[in-house]
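Retro notes
What went well: the complex prediction finally ran end to end.
Inputs used:
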Amino acid sequence: MEQTKLDTRKGDPGKNTGADTGFLDVRDLKVHFPTDDGLVRAVDGISFRIERGETIGIVGESGSGKSVTSQAILGLHRRSRAQSSGQIWLDGEDLMTVDDERLRELRGNKMAMIFQDPLSAMHPYYTVGAQIVEAIRVHHPDTSKDAAKKRAIDLLGLVGIPSPARRVDQYPHEFSGGMRQRAMIAMALSNDPALLIADEPTTALDVTVQAQILDLMRKLQSEFDSAIIMITHDLGVVAEMADEILVMYGGKAVEHGAVDNVFYEPQHPYAWGLLTSMPRLDRARMDRLNPVPGNPPSLINIPPGCAFHPRCTYQSEVPGDVCRTVVPDLLDDGTSHLTRCHIPTARREEIFLSDIKPRL
Amino acid sequence: MPIPAFTPLTDNPVMWAQGLLLPAVTLAMIFAASYVRLTRAYMLETMSEDYIRTARAKGVKESVVIRKHGLRAALTPIVTAAGMDLGGLLGGAVITEQVFSFRGLGYTAVRAITETDLPVIVGIVIMASSFVVIANLVVDVLYGVIDPRVRLT
Ligand SMILES: Nc1ncnc2c1ncn2[C@@H]1O[C@H](COP(=O)(O)OP(=O)(O)O)[C@@H](O)[C@H]1O
Ligand SMILES: [Mg+2]
């Protein structure tokens, strides 16, 4: 199993069982879906660990298994439809082994999620306020409806929605995209979650609103000392928000380490592709963007060997057909910077300095 | 269970209700079968919506997720179908009235047609069409009650 300890600070010492599991410690998480076409290996052995107050960014193209990972942490996959294995330690409790009722108590309470598309993720038939009130009262049934509504108004104000007392009685379709995303965040925050998972919270928003939302999340994190999992395919967002980055490809981590390592000295050819394909405003305009060539792999037929090899332009660096036949391990270069690639580390550093760095 | 026989409401309300009980159940069952299937189909669709996942992510109990979030959203198409059926109720009633030997609207309609009793036919057609119109009006009002997005447009 891969060991990805980047920070040795302890989680809440009162609740820890003694095992060194940090605040959130995901170990070798696998989520496979049996379908008519075959087994979808959506997540195939992901490990990471964060403490309160920290943010991990999970990046990767669509279909790389980011959302499935986050929903597995919340226990949202039906046991009948998904085969899951591994461990998910949250504050000393393994979420993979607790019963459904305990998971339900934790969801929306100790761990909450901001979903990707706030238009489809909010119920169209209930007011925004009613949906926040529900989130509060599910876990605090003693709170009166009036008190919960007052708190809903406070939350809407907190996330920067103007005239929250009026907005609280409106329906999601009466909100603009940015406002809806804020309402979604307010709902996720209603019980001061210690773990906040944001699944592409800004993808649908324009850049100004995006910056505001990210600002808001940072502010809330410092206020509640929450751990945040930030899922995105936008490396710029992650570089700005996260302490560490996990790059997913075909359900596996291909690179994982501190932001300074992964964002500024990436080691995996896929991360190189992602970074050099990023549009940059601070550089002279290139003629065109350089997308990573090819398409993301089908998770039913993951290519043998390194899953990225059909799209990798550096295969010739590795002798023989190792890239096509042997699955590379996620290896530590000695600085807790893990990379899953057959090219020797020293050679990768050379390529990075000569080919990649000048293009960033 | 008394053999159903029609007693006018003004004569004896209890007897009236008793007499209508079995035919009403019969008529309801004919329609219930298709509503069960319809509800099942729409619920299956609704339960895979994103907002259902959101409700689960909030920690809402599964029974509440199904009733409050799922069923509520599946209601619109079911109400539509109910509106259509209300209009067509007269047709179903013909057979039910025969079975319970009631002299109701359906029976009268058939009799009037076989005897080419034009004024009665016209009367029944007007009545049936008002039925359809009223049923659709009720459904339209219900849409607004169920779906807040309809209220504004
Ligand atoms: N319930 C499911 N059944 C079968 N396949 C699924 C299911 N949920 C997700 N997948 C598949 O898992 C893969 C990863 O999906 P996802 O985690 O949503 O990717 P992303 O990184 O874009 O968030 C996709 O190919 C998707 O089709
Ligand atoms: Mg996703």
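What we learned: The first strand of chain A starts at residue 24 and ends at 35.
What to try next: split runs per interface for comparison.
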